[in-house]
Amino acid sequence: MIEVFNRDKLLKIPKDIPIDKIKLLLEREFVLENRINIVFVTPKYIQRLNSEYRKKDEVTDLLSFNIDSDTILGEIYICPEYVINTTPSKNLQKQITRLFIHGILHLKGYDHEEKFDELDYSNEAMYIKQEQILNKILIEILQ
Hints:
Elements: E1 2-6, H1 19-29, E2 35-40, H2 43-54, E3 62-66, E4 72-78, H3 80-86, H4 92-107, H5 125-142
Helix pairs in contact: 1-5, 4-5
């Protein structure tokens, strides 16, 4: 099961992004024995997490954390403001969906094969799987 939370009620998540439909399609795509929490956060909050856990004092789009629990697989933190500011508006739904998938893949054990800053996504197994799932989900969203 995937739960989506808006940590700060003042956060503006675009209303044209069908979060509930994306969530249902992802639950069908991934066999999840434990819950995943997806949490929308402010730039300040994700920067603090990034600084504390990755030693990078900067805002980022996504962070994922495995949780050692019988009921929760992990948590994915997404900064919608960062995504909105770095993605053309016509691709916003696609990018948010991509980030959901990317975070879930991390929680399911996938990782980057190269150093993150030097990553060439096009040949990476995680990226290829992410884009395959993304394309499948986007087709279903449009139906």
